[in-house]
Amino acid sequence: MSNFELTIIKKIQSFSNPFFDALFQLITVLGEEAIIITILAFVYFTYDKRLGEKIAFSLFGSILINNTLKGIFVHKRPFEMYPDEVRAIRTKTATGSSFPSGHTQNAATFYTTLALRVQRKWFWILVNVLIFLIAISRLYLGVHFPKDVLVGTILGILWAWTGWYLYDRYSNTLKSKMLLFIIQLLIFTPFLFFHENLGLPIKISNDFYKIYSLYLGFIPAIYLENKYVNFSINVSIKKKTIRFLLSIVVLLGCMMGLKLIFPNKLIYTCLRYFLISFLGLGLFPFVIKKFNI
């Protein structure tokens, strides 16, 4: 199947030019963490806190599934298998193995969950077009095979619906919500012992440990917010704007600032990602409540 898939990639790349290079790099960014974190922060802190939790829960599950499958299948990327035939662009975003596509799956989960909330025909069309374009961008950039983005899209959409159902079914009380979050975490815990450097058949990359740590910080953060803060989104537009901008400073500040402080070792990377979600979603709401933002 690789030869057939290679033909598809080469056909898409036959249209390459500087304009499409810039366009598809811009499109692929819409499936990356900075954009997703920004939109999620806006939803959580200014629009619908419960929806923000739901999106985060679904997204964490989807990304953990994706990185686990990458570690199990360990497929090389097109530009790695065919360096003389595939033109590679923006390879810095191509971490881990190829199958399934993380960008496509993350985008499918994130934007489908938003569409499930909006429930408007025009928004469903927009979301489907966006997911398709992100998938195509990964082929154009030479970082994925067609099967990678196809499976990533299917898994992302399926998990968006699954996460939506599970959250609605088990989030009526704080206790049941925490149990749901913890069970999802425990399902993936065994894969912590299969790091790619250990020489085992399953090769879990550092990306898995990052998202696991981010989710590990998310759980106590939501517990603290729900039990002791429970901030309201029914505030003025001015306060919502200040709250949103401060949340971006805290989240992205932790992401980039702690990277400069901590040593470049996996254990410190895990600690940094834990603190990003714990400080941003757990302690920052205390600031909101304290200063009436």
Q: Can you characterise this structure?
A:
This protein has helices at residues 2-13, 18-29, 33-47, 49-73, 78-81, 102-118, 121-140, 146-170, 174-188, 206-229, 237-261, 266-290. The chain has 293 residues and is mainly alpha-helical. It has one domain. The longest helix has 25 residues, at 49-73. The model has no long low-confidence stretch (mean pLDDT 93). The protein starts with a helix and ends with a helix. It is globular and about 60 Å long. It is 75% helix and 0% strand.
Strand percentage, roughly?
Answer: under 5%
The dominant shape is globular
Total DSSP E strands: 0
Task: Please give the alpha-carbon distance between the first and last residues.
Answer: 56 Å
- How many separate helices? 12
What is the count of structural domains? 1
- Low-confidence parts, pLDDT < 50 over ≥5 residues? none
Which series of helices and strands comes N to C?
Answer: HHHHHHHHHHHH
Briefly say what this structure is.
This protein has twelve helices and no strands. The chain has 293 residues and is mostly helical.
